[in-house]
Specification:
The complex is a heterodimer of chains A (440) and B (449).
Chain A lengths: L1 H16 L4 E17 L2 E19 L2 E7 L4 H16 L25 H4 L6 H9 L4 E17 L3 E19 L2 E9 L7 H11 L12 E7 L1 H13 L3 H6 L17 E5 L22 E5 L2 E2 L6 H6 L18 E5 L5 H6 L3 E5 L2 E8 L4 E6 L3 E5 L2 E5 L3 E6 H6 L1 E4 L4 E5 L2 E7 L2 E10 L2
Parallel strand pairs in A: 7-12, 11-20
Antiparallel strand pairs in A: 1-2, 1-4, 2-3, 4-5, 5-6, 7-21, 8-9, 8-11, 9-10, 12-15, 13-14, 14-17, 15-16, 17-21, 18-21, 19-20
Helix pairs in contact in A: 1-2, 4-5
Chain B lengths: L5 E17 L2 E19 L2 E7 L5 H8 L20 E5 L11 H17 L4 E17 L4 E18 L3 E10 L8 H20 L6 E7 L1 H13 L4 H4 L28 E3 L21 E5 L2 E2 L6 H6 L8 E2 L8 E2 L3 E4 L6 H8 L2 E4 L2 E6 L5 E6 L2 E5 L2 E5 L3 E6 H6 L1 E4 L4 E9 L4 E9 L2 E10 L1
Parallel strand pairs in B: 4-6, 8-15, 14-23
Antiparallel strand pairs in B: 1-2, 1-5, 2-3, 5-6, 6-7, 8-24, 9-10, 9-14, 10-11, 12-13, 15-18, 16-17, 17-20, 18-19, 20-24, 21-24, 22-23
Helix pairs in contact in B: 2-3
The chains are: A alpha+beta (440), B alpha+beta (449).
Amino acid sequence: MEQVDKKFAKIVFKTLETEVSDLIVSLTKEKRRGVKFFNNKITKVDYSTNLSLEVFFAKDKKVIFSQIPTQSVEEAKRFCKKLVEISKILPQKEDYYGIAENGFEYKKLSNFDKSIDEGEGLEKVEDAIDLARDKGRASGILSLKTMYSYLISSGGTEIDEKSTKYYFSFRFIKKDYFSAHKAVCGAFLRYLDAEKVANETIELTNLTNKILKFKSGEYFALFEPLSFSSFVSNFASAASIFDIEAGFSFLGGKLNQMVASKEISVIDDPLLKNGYNSRSFDDEGVGTKKKYIIKNGILKTFLFNTSYAKKYKTKTTGNAGLTEPAPYNLVVNGENEKKKDKIIEEIKEGIWVTNNWYTRFNNYTAGDFSTLPRDMIFYIKNGEIKGALKQVRISDNLPRMFLNIKLVGKEKEQVRWWDSPLPVVSPVVGIDKVHFTSVE
Amino acid sequence: MSSKDYSEERYVESFRKSAVLKNGNLEGFVISKEKGVGIRVLKDNKLIFYATNELKNKEKIKEIKNLKINFKNIREVYFSEEKSNKANYSIKQKKKIEDTDEKEILEIIKELDSVFIEEGIKNRFITFSARIKKQEFENSEGSKIISYIPRIHLSYLITINEKRSIQRYGDIGFCSGLERITPKLFEKVREEVKELKEVAKKGKRIGLRKTNVVLSSELTGIAVHESVGHPTEADRIFGREAAQAGESYIKPSNIKIKVGSKLVNVADDPRIKEYGFFLYDDEGVKARRKILVKNGVINELLLNRETAFQLGTKSNGSARASSYYVEPIVRMSNTFLLPGEKRFEELVEEAKNGIFIKTFMEWNIDDLRINERYTGGIAYFIKNSKIEEPVIFPVIETTTFNFWSSVSDIANDLSFKAATCGKGEPMQDVPVTTGGPSILLKNVRIWSR
């Protein structure tokens, strides 16, 4: 089947090849299976397939992006010809410096799980739901995907890759303000222990049955991986040179400076084994590589594609995005990693945040934002959980929070969710002086 | 209980022209066309969704319709009985997207950019999108609905650096051809930038206080959307969105709860020709106005066929899917606070002393839709019933019930603002409008960020 799709992409490439100077045609085929469940019952079963054909080309610095209709070759050809005509009347993109003409060495990536491709896995939800029954309400989704990607470029490369993904989101609600959520992801079904996810989620809601009154102020906060993933996703995305130019980043001018505590390192690893978003080539066909974004608190690189790299007289980091360079899988490492149990034991006073959502910035260039802890929020005193909190908000500054990171845990999970669409492999992270507010 | 099998096919063809301008540079022009079909099947009361853009694969569609689902923990899904509909409707464009030259689109974004340049804004990010969505819906009950809907959308993020740095994200969007992008709109943006510059230069901080607050239509609209519109979505009340967009302060056992003062009346009306327009929803049900809150009490929920069945009633046409590739779920359309009779100036007069907030940047709300926050962009002191000097980043952090209970007067200056609303997993972004008139809130807790 892939051969037929590849042929289609090649016809589109040939149609445009002689008309333009820089050309990239990329094809993605997605086969998706999934279930959605709520109140301990599966409510929808999903079987879908989609073929997406994207074209990027430039001629005389005039740049076009397009998604081409894939229903017939003739229609696609007609559409391409129209694109060429349109490009002629466009103004030049003054800071366009071309696509990659080298860097086409690829590391072998084997993130393909035959069992996902052949239709296994959805039954794992049943065991997780069974664990929740009689205790409360379980809701979530399990999504399994096979992805086929093919790219051909006038820069001189042609490459394809097949991978699989799983994503399991499980939220358990005992009652209002006594709920917990985990959302894990990866590439191989054997790494998905749905029962363990369900057990750990349910267990979080059993750690206290008391709601405490809360006073706004600055507290030490321990963030679960799901919660910290939101912060680190926003932070790492701000390293994209596009975000810096567009006003979406607080990292402009801070290369090689201390932007976080020395306790933390953040790696972008596109070649991560079992990585949800692993890829061996970027959107212009450049071989991807592992890189530190933050190493012991120092900002080590911005994220570039070839055009931006030439503009800033540096090398591409293999993070194209032809418009917007972006990270793939983030990995959070600590300088002095400690076990979570030990960390909690040593908290004199603090708040343990298990999830948050609705992160919104008041000013991206300053990093001022607020976000809402959601699900279990524990108040800890002298290493003991004293109770849960409700209706609290974090209102702070992201650069300040990263400078205040005090410790990074040991046990890591690969997570992603609404507030962190990027997959993040992270342990718990402890931050000093986080500003919490409470609704009156 | 109805247990008959059901199926629907929703063919969507969309065509889009868009452009991104960053600090005056055209990042690229995007022209896209996609076609696909989203199919739902209720077979033995089990819900199956299938989507594809490989339209020639008719065998696969047949196979899906006959699929046997074997899960132990499966829910039986029922749809409310609805009348079948046949319709063909469109929005008439005076300046058609299909006929618009790319140069004209570039002129529009350049014109907006020139407003920012003339006001000395160095950091500017503008996006423009014009989209046509053609949809053919057909179900096994005999409904057939064809629609052809154009939408245009402009957004901008600007950074103003004066004594303080202020960012503003703005949205302009319509369900129309390009005729609604007018010079008047850009003059309004210019006025807004001038005001933001004054706030950045002269804005004073305020300490925590309780005072009277006048909110503009923009603030009323976002508060309506977040704390009334979302919580009245019936799917989240029944728990179907628990692991995604969350649930609601409204519970299935107690719908008619008091949210605010008797002055508060909220409607959702997809038939208004604004950004959230449609005449039939994505289950083929005829759209109508819903009064979500009547005299301060929850009056009606947003329903699709599944939740209507659960409540033993009829759907009110609130099912939407953002593309063929996702299932229709309960969504808002044009959601707004119904206007009062006073003029804006009378609200300021009545406030006597307090704060007027005109625009916002940062906002959020918890997953039960109770704990909400709005941070002002353009804001001023009200002193002796007059709007005076600017205030920097006033924050209202309160509960839904406190917010709507403190409404003491409502102006007659109803207006709508385009917005993009997210829900579901995979994430479904749909065009909506947030709307309302200016309102006066009494005795609100407020401080500067």
